[in-house]
Write a structure and sequence with these properties.
Layout lengths: L1 E5 L2 E2 L6 E5 L2 E6 L1 H5 L7 E4 L4 E4 L1 E6 L1 H9 L1 E2 L6 H12 L8 E6 L13 H5 L7 E5 L4 E4 L1 H6 L9 E3 L1 H9 L5 H17 L2 E6 L10 H12 L6 E6 L4 H9 L11 E9 L29 H13 L4 E5 L2 H11 L12 E4 L5 H10 L2 E4 L4 H4 L3 H5 L1 H5 L4 H7 L2 E3 L10 H10 L11 H7 L2 H6 L17 E4 L16 E6 L2 E5 L1
Parallel strand pairs: 1-5, 2-6, 7-13, 8-9, 9-10, 13-14, 14-15, 15-16, 16-17, 17-18, 18-19
Antiparallel strand pairs: 1-3, 3-4, 6-20, 10-11, 11-12, 20-21, 21-22
Helix pairs in contact: 2-7, 7-8, 10-11, 17-18
């Protein structure tokens, strides 16, 4: 059966109708061109002038982590520790024997009272018997009560705050996730992404809530081969150590193994922390915390071992690095290991705190850049205080990277929601921060569509509204190219199509 979308306003097109057959676009034309190709048994959807874009590509997120976040206590709108306490107590009363109280999403920078993280004493006052873990919005700082620390054998943490690799130690003490629970998290994450018009993601999932890659890998493969996924997932593969990565490769997995619902993507290295938690690795002490330069999770030599092993199997490496010290080390690790022209798309995730000399090296090496303009919703207010005026000026250089590298946009969900419309708006407005690096509206949209597709090596089948491309589409109530930039987030996703089927409808 064919499906005709008529009376549409189509991005980058003078046409007004789309004909879909099976899971692909057959024709993009005028209404009469499409209508004459259908029969009485085919479906016609009149869009009444609504705006149609390619399905959004969120090039870096954590799909399993998003589903898990939606299932636990959500703290994103907390404005104080007292507010947080009320939410934790409400969930505490519903827990069964043996369950942990797990929450995520707070950002102390938005608190109206003291801008401090919850501590062990704060959480012990809520419960000393039930293990409690509260993770900051960035995912790089976790607060635990005494019971949780004991179960994780981390009694030496005096204030209950653990960071970076130590968070994985706490995760290992959590009740184990089974396949049915993991499927529930994946499906919740997919539904959330679809509601924002997202149809394809680059997603880091292996260690989000599991202690190894096997269960997430097997679960995604099962769902994809059963065609039970309304989202295309390009897995950004994170491992506990190089031995685990070697085992993965020995099992026959490497880049591009899979299908267009679930494919193995690049190796992912998390090299440092976050700006908000002051754990991003800086070359000099933080401007507002002179006693710290953040945290590096790997040495240059360790990263080189990962990169060289990945290269042997034609697998790209992408590195989470937020602080300029982390960027220095990643650039050193890539030296001599990135082929000329960077055909594998080795890259940097986040591209936040950058010096001009580093920007020049990234462009010279043609490194892929995964940025999150949505971060400017909160970061614009803190970056100068964190890193100083000079370094803040060269940071978040979206326009420069977009015009000189393969650069794509994303949300890092659940750090932020996969709200592509807000991300597009902030790529243009930058929340008032260094406007010279603003993208045009077309560049901002393309950073979430064709550039994301190119980043994931899928530009021949997603990211455009054209014949032979997958019918992955998002329908908006507003033509976002015709409104003021600061109004783009007000547009509503009315429908999301994936493989020609409606997977979200308002």
């Amino acid at each position: 059966m064919k499906k005709a979308l008529i009376n549409a306003t189509i991005y980058k097109s003078e046409k007004q109708a789309i004909l879909i057959e099976d899971n692909k676009i057959l024709i993009v034309g005028m209404n009469e061109d499409v209508l004459q190709q259908i029969s009485d048994s085919d479906e016609v959807i009149d869009l009444n002038g609504m705006f149609v874009l390619p399905g959004f590509v969120d090039s870096h997120m954590h799909l399993v982590g998003l589903g898990f976040y939606l299932s636990c206590v959500q703290l994103a709108t907390c404005t104080s520790l007292e507010d947080m306490k009320e939410r934790l107590l409400a969930r505490l009363s519903t827990l069964k024997q043996g369950q942990w109280l797990i929450a995520r999403g707070y950002n102390e920078e938005t608190f109206t009272d003291a801008k401090v993280k919850p501590t062990k004493d704060f959480l012990d006052a809520i419960s000393k018997d039930v293990p409690i873990c509260v993770t900051r919005s960035c995912g790089h700082s976790m607060s635990c009560n005494t019971k949780a620390l004991q179960l994780a054998s981390m009694n030496e943490s005096k204030d209950g705050i653990v960071e970076e690799m130590d968070i994985n130690v706490v995760h290992e003490a959590w009740p184990k996730v089974d396949e049915s629970t993991l499927i529930d998290y994946i499906q919740k994450g997919i539904a959330c992404a679809n509601a924002f018009g997202v149809t394809t993601v680059g997603s880091d999932d292996f260690l989000s809530i599991c202690d190894s890659y096997e269960l997430p890998l097997n679960t995604f493969e099962k769902l994809s081969y059963q065609e039970k996924m309304n989202l295309r997932v390009n897995e950004q593969c994170e491992f506990n150590d190089v031995e685990e990565f070697s085992r993965f490769l020995d099992e026959g997995y490497t880049f591009d193994v899979g299908n267009d619902l679930f494919r193995i993507g690049p190796l992912k290295l998390v090299t440092d922390g976050s700006l908000g938690a002051r754990s991003a690795a800086m070359s000099k002490p933080y401007h507002d915390a002179q006693d710290t330069t953040g945290i590096m999770n790997y040495s240059v030599e360790e990263m080189q071992t990962f990169v060289q092993l990945a290269n042997q199997f034609n697998m790209p490496t992408i590195a989470h690095c937020i602080g300029d010290r982390a960027v220095d080390d990643v650039l050193e690790a890539y030296a001599g290991n990135v082929y000329e022209g960077n055909p594998l798309h080795h890259g940097i995730v986040h591209c936040q705190i950058l010096r001009q000399d580093q920007i020049d090296q990234i462009i010279q090496k043609k490194l892929s850049c995964y940025f999150q303009s949505i971060f400017l919703f909160t970061d614009a207010a803190i970056v100068e205080n964190r890193v100083g005026e000079a370094l803040a000026k060269s940071s978040y250089p979206y326009k420069t990277l977009y015009e000189n590298t393969i650069a794509s946009n994303g949300s890092d969900a659940p750090v932020e929601m996969p709200n592509a419309l807000l991300g597009i708006e902030l790529a243009i407005t930058r929340n008032g921060m260094h406007q010279e690096e603003s993208l045009s509206v077309e560049q901002a949209i393309d950073s979430y569509t064709i550039k994301g597709a190119e980043q994931l090596f899928m530009q021949d089948r997603i990211g455009k509204i054209a014949p032979d491309y997958y019918a992955d589409l998002v329908v908006l109530d507003t033509d976002i190219t015709k409104v003021e930039a600061n109004q783009i987030h007000e547009a509503k996703v009315m429908m999301t199509f994936m493989n020609g089927e409606v997977v979200f409808e308002r």
